[in-house]
Amino acid sequence: MPRSNRPRRRAGGGDEEESGLERMMAGWRRTEVRRDGVWNVQPVSAASATKDYICPGCGKTVTPGVAHLVTWRADGVMGDASDLAARRHWHTHCWKIGA
Fold first, then answer.
1. In the predicted model, what is the mean pLDDT of the chain?
2. Is 45:62 a contact under the CB 8 Å cutoff?
3. How far is CA 94 from CA 49, 57, 82, in A?
4. Which of 14, 20, 31, 54 has its CA 20 to 30 A from that of 3?
5. Beta-bridge mates of residue 38
6. How many Cα atoms within 13 Å fall on the side-chain side of residue 49?
7. How far are the Cα atoms of 25, 43, 47, 61 from residue 29, in angstroms, in the given order?
8. Which residues contact 62 (CB under 8 A, 6 or more apart)?
9. The whole model's pTM is what?
10. What is the 3 state secondary structure string of the chain?
11. What phi, psi does 24 have (nearest 5°)?
12. What is the mean pLDDT of residues 15-43?
């Protein structure tokens, strides 16, 4: 019998849209320890960057089409949903130099 190359659907339909928390927790997220605590850091590709954001490091705009990082606390006391709501978009260079 020939093999099927079609992707199989997940149990439960898989048609439901994932919540923002689940989407942010997936992907290439990593954890970094800095002077001010533990941070979740997730890269955003240039293709996925579709909005303007203000970088907290330099105060300049992270424009659409520019690869950058999204960061949020990993050690907050208010829980994951609260920390995720307070996430910030940084230029990669600004995050690396610790501005």
1. 82
2. no
3. 17, 5, 24
4. 14
5. 33
6. 22
7. 7, 7, 17, 23
8. 49, 52, 53, 54, 55, 68, 89, 90, 91
9. 0.69
10. CCCCCCCCCCCCCCCCCCCHHHHHHCCCCEEEEECCEEEEEEEECCCCCCCCEECCCCCCEECCCCCEEEEEECCCCCCHHHHHHCCEEECHHHHHHCC
11. -70, -30
12. 73
Q: How many residues does the chain have?
A: 99
Q: What angle do CA 73, 35, 59 make, to 5 degrees?
A: 70
- Structure confidence by residue, pLDDT tens digits, 48-86: 999 999 999 999 999 999 999 999 999 888 888 888 889
The token pair that represents 46 in the structure block: 């240039």
> Quick check: 66 and 21 in contact, CB under 8 A?
no
Task: Read off the tokens for 22.
Answer: 């689940």
